[in-house]
Amino acid sequence: MPRSPSASLTSYSDKRLVSASAVTTSRPRTVQAANEQVVTDQPIKRSKSRLSLGWLGWILPIALLGFAEVAAHVGWVQARLLPPPSEIAQTLSVLVDQGLFGHIAASSTRVLSGYAIGAILAVGFGLLVGLSRHAEAFFEPTFQALRAIPSLAWVPLLLLWFGIDETPKITLIAIGAFFPIYLGLVSGIRNVDRKLIELGEMYGLSSLTLARRIVLPAALPSLFTGLRNGLSLAWMFLVAAELIAATRGIGYLLTDGRETSRPDVVLAAILLLAILGKLTDSLLKWLEVRKLAWSDSLATRSV
Amino acid sequence: MTTLLDLHIHDKHFDERVVLQDVSLSLQAGEVVSLVGKSGCGKSTLLRLIAGLDRNFDGRIALDGKPLQGVSQDVGLIFQEPRLLPWLTVAENVGFNRGSKGAANADPHIRSLLQEVGLIDAIDALPKHLSGGMAQRAAIARGLYNQPRLLLLDEPFSAVDAFTRMRLQDLLLTLATQHGFAVLLVTHDIDEAAYLSDRVLIMGQGEIIDDLPIELARPRNRHADALAQARDRILDVLEEIHAI
After folding, report:
1. pTM for this structure?
2. For chain A, which residues make up each domain, given as ranges?
3. H or E element at residue A187
C-alpha cells in the first residue's frame, strides 16, 4: 500500500498532464506497484513529435507553387491559362481594393448560418433517432429517401420557392451539412460499446441518465467526424449556390472570372476557398482535440 | 457466520437452450467462493443473474433473507475488462455513481478507496494513461464505492500478466478482509481458485457438480504442497466431468 501522497489536495491541478507526470516522479517510492506503472509522459512525447513534423506539410504546397511559377515563366504552360502564383497574388491584392473582404464576408456568413442551422437540426434529429426506437422507425425511412436525393437537385426548387436572395443559399447549405452530422451522431450512438451501457445498467441508471452520462459522451468522437464532414459539404454547397445565382461571394468571383476570361481571378477564388475551408476545419479540429483529449486514438492522430 | 446470499435457479434459458437448471447456492458473509467450469457452462450467466442485469429467469435470489430484485447497491460487479469510462478521470470513474456533486478527487471516500488499491497518485489520470493492472485496480475501487456486501467478479484478472495478477489477487483478499464483503469469483484459473477461495464450486453444463472446501489457513503460501493438492482435487473433478 503506498504511503499518503506528499502533494496537498490543492496541488491536484486541472491540467491532467501535469498531475500525470507527477505520478511518474512520485511513484517509484512504491516498489510493489512500480512494475505495472505506465509511461505517463508518452502523450507529451507524442505532441512534441507532432509539432516537429508540422513543417513537413508545407513542403508540397510550396513546391507546387514554386513549380507553377517556374513553369509559367519558362513557358511550359500558357500563362494565359495558368497564371503564375505571383500574378495570382497581385490579382488578390487588386481584389482587396475592389472589395474582396465583402465577398469573403458574404460567403462566410452564408456558410456559417447554413451550417449552424443544419448542425442544430442534425443534432436534434440525431439524438431523437439515435436514442428512441420509435423515432427511428418513424423518421429513418424518410431520411434515407431524402438522403438519396443528390442535394443539388434541390436548387431549382429552392430558387422557385425562395427567389435568388440569401434564403435558398442558406437552405441549400443547411441541407448539405445536415446529413453527415446526422449520420455521424446516429452511428456514434448506435456503436456505443454495449459493455459501457451494461455498466450504466449495473448502477441502475434511468434511460435518460444513461443517455446523458454514457451514450452521448461515447458518441462524441463520431459526432465530431460528422461535424467536420458536414463543414466541408457546407463549403461545397456554398459554391454551388453562388455559382448559380449571386452578386457577391467567392462563388460569384468564380463565375465572374470565367465570364471575363480571367483565370487569375478564378484561381484566386479557388485559393481563397482552400484557405477558408482549411481555417474553419482547423477551428473544429481544435475544438475536437480539446473536447476529446480523453480519446486514446486521437492522441496518435496528427494535427 | 450468517448466510448472506441464498439462491435457487429453477431454470434459465436463452431461446431453446437451457443455460442453468436447478442451481442452488448459498454464501456466508465474508466468504470467498470461486465458480469454475469450462466456457459456456453458465458461470457468467449465474453471476449476471445475481448482479440483477438479467431478470428473465425462473427462481429466487435472496440477500440477507430479502429477495433481490434487479441491481442493488449491496452487490458490486467487476468485469473481465475494467470498463472505465474513458472521458472521466480515475476519481470520477470511481465515484461514477455518487449523488453528491463537487470534485471527485476531493471526496474523502474516493481518496481512501484509491489509497487502498494503490492508485492515489493516479487520482487525476485518464484511463488511457493507465496500464491494464492499474485500470483493474480503479475498477475494483469503483466496485467498492457503494460498500457492497457481496462482490461479484467475472474473470477479473484474466487479462493481466502473471505478476500483476498475483498482486491483484492479494489486493482482493486484503480488501475483502478489511471491508468484510463476500466474494463470488468466476475464474478459469484453477490456481487462482485454490489460492483465493474458502470453497470452490465446480460447474458442469448448467449445474453445480461439486462443492470443494479449501481448508487452508490464511495468509496462504502459493508454493505450499497443500495448495497444490487442493488444485489437483479441483482438476480431478473437472476432468471427471469432462470425461463423461
Report:
1. 0.80
2. 1-38, 85-300
3. helix A166-190
**In Å, what is the CA distance from A99 to each residue of A87, A94, A105?**
18, 9, 10
Give me the residue from A36, A42, A214 closest to B85, CB to CB.
Answer: A214
CATH of region A85-300: 1.10.3720.10
Contact A4 B164 (CB under 8 A): no
Strand (E) or helix (H) holding B14: strand B3-14
Judging contacts by C-beta atoms under 8 Å, the chain B residues touching residue A217 are 85, 87
Q: HSE (CB half, 13 Å, CA atoms) of B236?
A: 8
Interchain pair B164, A201: CB under 8 A: no
Q: Domains for chain B: give ranges and CATH numbers.
A: 30-56+69-243 (3.40.50.300)
Question: What amino acid is encoded at B224 in this protein?
Answer: A
The enclosing H or E element of A102 equals helix A100-131
Distance from C-alpha of B61 to C-alpha of B186, rounded to nearest angstrom? 18
- ipTM reported for the complex, 2 dp: 0.88
C-alpha–C-alpha distance, residues B48 and B64, integer Å: 19
- Asked whether the beta carbons of residue A203 and residue B96 sit closer than 8 angstroms, the reply is yes
The average pLDDT across A190-204 equals: 92
Backbone angles phi, psi at B149, to 5 degrees: -85, -25
- Please determine, for residue A12, whether its predicted confidence score (pLDDT) is greater than 60: no
Model confidence over A117-159: pLDDT tens digits? 999 999 999 999 999 999 999 999 999 999 999 888 888 899 8
How confident is the model over B179-193, as pLDDT tens digits?
999 999 999 999 999
Residue in A2, A38, A202 closest to B51 by CB: A202
Q: How many CB pairs under 8 A join A and B?
A: 99
Number of H helices, E strands in chain A: 15, 0
